[in-house]
Amino acid sequence: MESAQPLEPTPPLGEDDWSALLERALEAPVRVRFSRARHQVVRLARHRGTYHISLARFFSLAPPEIRHALAMWMRSGRRARKACAALDGWIDAHVRALAHEKPAHVRLEPRGSHHDLAALAQGVIAQHFAQEELRAWPSVGWGRKNGSRSRRTLRLGSFDPVDRVVRLHPALDSADVPMWFVRYVLFHELLHAVLDRPERSKGRRVIHGREFVARERAYPDFERALAWEREHVLGLIRAARSGRAFALPTRAAQRPAARPTPTPADDRSVQGLLF
Ligand SMILES: [Zn+2]
Fold first, then answer.
1. What is the reported pTM?
2. What percent of the chain stands above pLDDT 90?
3. Cα 229 to middle of ligand 1, angstroms
4. Which tens digits make up the pLDDT trace of 9-27?
5. Contact 68, 4 (CB under 8 A)
6. CA-CA to 93 of 20 to 30 Å: which in 5, 135, 163, 171?
């Protein structure tokens, strides 16, 4: 264990400050990028001798011992046990502190034209998560409608562990999307909330860990939901791109012909569309 160098105590650190600091510690080129990622607050890759690391924005406020711990972890990975523990603890505290600050600013509309997410989520919680002791369930609501032509895939649902918010894609707010499918998407995202524990290694959040996969497979509509998604993935993507709700093919009478058919980035399962 090296002694921490007396690093300049003047926060916040910018990306360049971080680069310089890590380059000194690692004696190798380091590119640092701040990200808005909330699931993976640290991502590291090495390409031709250069480290590329993306850090959640709150790393700009890291105290000297955490800067040092990050460098240690980059150099030695999990073998740097003390550094990893310090890093994990600090990240966790930060993510949790943010979780308490932010929810007030997030306004969500759970009531759609066809599906009321608040009511459905209550049912899912009562039926599948009655045993869970959560201090507070996340708020649920529809994401914003913004059609995007460039996207090739879409995310049907997401859980934000910082804001404690579950969002569903507005393309799902359709009479043509069965209620049990919407319920399944809610189940998937609420399961993230249930399992949102510091299950991290190396400063990384485990998203679909072993327990997650096992519990999701046990969900009664799991297979059926996968099959429905597989069958309708192109229609869902098309709906998302046009900023409209999903419609079954027979009803989607006029569809712009000029656009290329979207290809799902990952057709292995519905998992590709959930986060
Ligand atoms: Zn997920």
1. 0.57
2. 41
3. 15
4. 456 888 889 999 999 999 9
5. yes
6. 5
Q: What is the pLDDT of residue 204?
A: 56
Whole-number Cα distances in Å, 35 to 14, 80, 146, 219: 12, 24, 22, 33
What would the pLDDT profile of 205-218 be if each residue is shown by its tens digit? 667 888 999 999 99
Ion ligand 1 contact residues with beta carbon within 5 A: 274-275
Rounded to whole angstroms, how far apart are CA atoms 23 and 192? 36
Instruction: Name the strand (E) or helix (H) holding 233.
Output: helix 222-242
85: CA distance to ligand 1 center in Å? Answer: 26
Name all domains of the chain by residue range, CATH numbers in brackets.
15-101 (no CATH), 106-273 (3.30.2010.10)
Q: Which residues contact 241 (CB under 8 A, 6 or more apart)?
A: 147, 148, 149, 151, 259, 262
N-to-C CA span, the chain: 38
Q: Both tokens of residue 155? A: 């995310």
- Kindly give the pairing relationship between strand 157-160 and strand 50-56: unpaired
Residue 15 alpha carbon to ligand 1 centre in Å = 29
Q: Three-class SS of residue 35?
A: strand
Residues of the chain with pLDDT under 50: 1-9, 150, 200-201, 251-252, 254, 257-271
